[in-house]
Amino acid sequence: MVDLKIKKRPIGAVAEVARNGHPEVTSRTGGRIGVVTGASEEGFNPLDLMFASLSACLVLSARIAASKLALLDRFDGASAEVTGEKSAEEPYRVERFIVKIRIDGNLSEGERHQIVHMAEEICTVSNTLKTPPAISLSIG
């Protein structure tokens, strides 16, 4: 039997903004991304980051699912396009996520469906969005 050792990655982020300018977000591992605020500015706004998190999690989970299903040798890749419908009234929120997943490779339609459904079950982000967590807010 093989002993698997799973290394846990630090999770979390800090966003900072000055009186002027755009926010910058730093991950616990040192990654940085600038955040835009204008509707026509190129880059990621906070909603884009949420959609990006879901899309990235789903494609990574699709690759894991293909491996678990012993289909990785025929899995060439996956893409997930995520958009949403935003509420028209306060409190503003995304009321519905719209996700289109493409699975590439020499796979049957049934195998593609298996991968997608398993990926959704594996994805921490989709699982979180389906059962919203409590938010513990403190002022410090």
Automatic annotation (TrEMBL):
<dbReference type="InterPro" id="IPR003718">
    <property type="entry name" value="OsmC/Ohr_fam"/>
</dbReference>
<dbReference type="InterPro" id="IPR036102">
    <property type="entry name" value="OsmC/Ohrsf"/>
</dbReference>
<dbReference type="Pfam" id="PF02566">
    <property type="entry name" value="OsmC"/>
</dbReference>
<protein>
    <submittedName>
        <fullName>OsmC family protein</fullName>
    </submittedName>
</protein>
<dbReference type="InterPro" id="IPR015946">
    <property type="entry name" value="KH_dom-like_a/b"/>
</dbReference>
